[in-house]
Amino acid sequence: MSFVSSRQQSRHIAINREERYFERPTDSNGNYQRVTDYYGEYIFHFADAQEIPASIKEELEQAVADGAVISREHAEVVAKAVTEWAIKKGATHFCHWFQPLTGSTAEKHDAFLDFADKEQPIETLSASQLIQGEPDASSFPNGGSRSTFEARGYTAWDLTSPMFLKEGANGMTLCIPTAFVSYHGEALDIKTPLLRSVSALNKEGTRFMHLCGEKDVKKVSVTCGAEQEYFLVDKNFYFERPDLVMSGRTLFGAPSSRNQQLDDHYFGAIPERVMAFMEELDLELHRLGIPAKTRHNEVAPGQFELAQIFRDANTAADNNQMVMAMIEDIARRHNFVALLHEKPFAGINGSGKHLNWSMATDTGINLLGPGKEVHQNSRFLAFTSIVIEAVKRHSKMLRVAVSSQGNDHRLGANEAPPSIISVFTGSTIGSILEAIKDGKEFTPEGDITLDLGANQLASLPKDNTDRNRTSPFAFTGNKFEFRAVGSSHAIGFPLTILNGAVASVLKESNDILEEMIKGGESVDKALLKLSEKWMKSSWNVIFNGDGYSEEWVKEAEKRGLPNLKTTADALPIMMDTQETAYLTDLGIYRRGEIETRYNVLIERYCTLREIEFTTLIDLVHQYVVPAAIKFKKEIADVVLAQKELKVESTVEMDVYKKVNLMLESLYEDTRNLANMVKTLPENEEERAKEIANSLMPLSEQIAKFIGEVEVHMPNEQWPLPSYFDMLFLR
Ligand code: ADP
Ligand code: MG
User: Which of 36, 116, 474, 725, CA to CA, is 20 to 30 A from 45?
Assistant: First the structure.
């Protein structure tokens, strides 16, 4: 078959690809293995390793609990055990796996191979290689926090997260999850502050439970489950769209005639080729001990979601990094490219990551679970009020935590939680909290019986307004859902900011509770008074209406809620020491660590946007203008021919003029954009503002004009894969 263009060829290939089959694991009788047989077969956790004696496990558990240093001999035992295990599974190399401030993961591989005496080859991983690594920190973003002479950085084994095997096409690597710190102990990664925030919450959470009378609680952990959204496009289309390759999103594109108006994709059957991909993805994730649970289509065509079962925040954060990497890797095996960008296509839904968040005790109590007894309910309401107060107080930093150039297209756009941080409670819990705020007695009100004594909360009907998707922070029955997080984000950062916010209000609450209980107040009464206090101060942040509406923006302004529209507006909050004091007070970040992150984030914002602008400018010159000129020439030829034939050229002239006008406008705008890129201010903050407020709107106008040219051009002459190609052909 011959094709007039590579785009046409790609369409042919995309439609005719076969599903990829892979071998599902079988047992010795040839029967398919159960998921429980292979779940976690690629992870090694010291607690489950039979080769490690109980006494050493205890020491390691202790180290996990209080951060104590483990002895070298004992680390040696773990190193031996994991090496044997990994080599048996086919591993040849090991690496320290960490999360630098780029938001992705990094690894530096070493072979297990070493020499014993007389160049006798052996396989080994020493205790020190397990515990500590020394990657060259100067090649990772550090926000100017270190001068090059002290560019040494250390990776330190994170005992709390299991080691795992990463499969390459032809081998296996043992990955050791680590924290990444500088020579002076400054956190250079996302994990370290997360661990600190988890400890802070553990401390205050345990104290809270003790005050509530739950004296047997030894530990309170943060639970988290992320729902990951992504798009899949055929590999060929992807590589024919330089904007996708360079920036992860299409910088322009005419909407296809059917986008998501029918809402049929969400409920539709999963396309076969996609299903084959999901099956392989789930298998590989389960092998890695990542409990992938739900898979389905999302709202937009070509958009999908994966949700995993919740677990402790640190593991959940590591898991999500792996989930993103695996989605990308396995998509390629199926000749797809996965797009994790928050807004790969204009005009249809973007991708987010709902962070389901709660806290749980080692005795199995979910702090956000309404209970069956009075004291459980007062505790639940108090804790819920604490979280709401935390969101209200630290809403600006929570906005910072979800900012990025990609997410700017989502937040505030008409399909995603707005950049105004508010809390959705649902009407049932909302009415109860309102009664508490107003100091009302627990008497029946409306159709809700606010009689905590009669176990009403436990039997509350599940609120169907829980399905409100327009809120950035929603209570959903037994957890909160932080929905403003972007699909490409490393969740460790927003988790840290949220944990810190709650830990700070929880600490204050504990002090208040302690005073009240000392003063002879009953625990229930004290909890109630605390809830009343927080509800009075944070009532403003609760919003149960439509977060997408224009009215809400006005209403929020009246309420005095911040509306930090873009990343350029949000990031400078990090340099406001008042806004970040709670984080430094709790020891979650040092002041310098926050500055480091600010520098990295603002630089990233500017750089990524500048890449988008230069890519757009190139595409205009290399694709859009030549295609339009060629088309204009064709029309002109017809017009001239018709003139000779003495035939009117009304239609031709109309199309010609339209295309010509659009082309002139976009050419002019592109020239302006190019000049603006060249003259951007040096200062990063000013640069970011200029980008967000002037260059972005201009680039979007260019995109609109290009879209107009595209719809007026003959389909086969448009040189780039269209939205229709990328979203519907597979
Ligand atoms: P929904 O339908 O409200 O989104 P699901 O039951 O589908 O609720 O759960 C969505 C996500 O929330 C899953 O990842 C799930 O594991 C997680 N989740 C459930 N309970 C908790 C909890 N207590 N803490 C953190 N995450 C939770
Ligand atoms: Mg959900």
Answer: 116
Smallest CA-to-CA distance from 43 within 85, 2, 7, 3 is with 85
Distance CA 703, CA 720 (A): 14
Q: Given phi > 0 = left and psi -120 to 50 = alpha, else beta, which region is 643?
A: alpha
Q: Can you say whether the dihedral through the CA atoms of 19, 25, 30, 31 is positive or negative?
A: negative
Residue 259: the pLDDT is 57
pTM of the prediction?
A: 0.93
Measured distance CA(505)–CA(519) in Å, rounded? 21
How far is residue 58's CA from residue 53's CA, in Å, rounded to a whole number?
Answer: 9
DSSP character string of 220-278: EEEEEEEEEEEEEEEHHHHHT-HHHHHHSS-S--PPPS-SSTT-HHHHSPPPHHHHHHH
Mean pLDDT score, 102-129: 88
Distant-in-sequence, close-in-space partners of 337: CB < 8 Å, separation ≥ 6: 232, 233, 234, 235, 238, 239, 244, 328, 331
pLDDT reported for residue 355: 97
Contacts of 533 (CB under 8 A, 6+ apart): 512
| All domains of the chain in start order, with CATH | 40-189 (3.10.20.70), 197-603 (3.30.590.10)
Mean local confidence (pLDDT), 388-395: 98
Q: What is the CA radius of gyration of the chain?
A: 28
| Residue whose token pair is 């080859």 | 121
What pLDDT score does 299 carry? 79
Cβ–Cβ < 8 Å for 197, 495: yes
Q: Which residue from 3, 180, 203 is spatially nearest to 100, judged by alpha carbons? A: 180
694 Cβ closer than 6 Å to some ligand 1 atom? no
Residue type, position 666, single letter: L
Ligand 1 neighbour 310 (Cβ under 6 A): yes
Of ligand 1's atoms, which has the minimum distance to the CA of residue 476? 3
244-297, pLDDT tens digit by residue?
A: 999 999 999 998 765 555 555 666 678 889 999 999 999 999 999 999 999 988
Most confident among 6-15, 99-108, 318-327 (mean pLDDT): 318-327
Determine the residue type at 654: D
Cα four-point dihedral sign 550, 552, 555, 559:
negative
User: 225: CA distance to ligand 2 center in Å?
Assistant: 9
Could you give the percent of the chain with pLDDT greater than 70?
91
Mutate to test the pocket of ligand 1, among 222, 314, 479, 480 (most ligand atoms within 8 A of CB): 479
The CA distance from 257 to 167, in Å, is 41
**Model pLDDT, residue 675:** 98
d(Cα 565, Cα 532) in Å, to the nearest integer? Answer: 32
- Looking at all shown ligands, the one closest to residue 364's CA atom is 1
Which are the contacts of 360, defined by CB distance < 8 A and separation ≥ 6? 220, 221, 223, 366, 367
Residues 6+ apart with CB under 8 A from 555: 543
- For 193, the token pair is 């502050």
Indicate which atom in ligand 1 lies nearest the CA of residue 481. 12
Average pLDDT, the chain: 89
Predicted confidence band of residue 3 (pLDDT cuts 50, 70, 90): confident
Structure tokens at 61: 């558990």
With the C-alpha atoms ordered 652, 657, 663, 664, is the resulting torsion angle positive or negative?
positive
- The span from the CA of 286 to the CA of 289, in Å, is 5
* DSSP assignment letter at 478: S
Using alpha carbons, select from 242, 230, 270, 166 the residue that is nearest to residue 406: 230
Q: What is the pLDDT of residues 449-485, one digit of tens each?
A: 444 443 444 445 445 445 667 889 999 889 999 999 9
User: Any idea what DSSP says for residue 488?
Assistant: T
Q: Is the CB of 469 under 6 A from ligand 1?
A: no
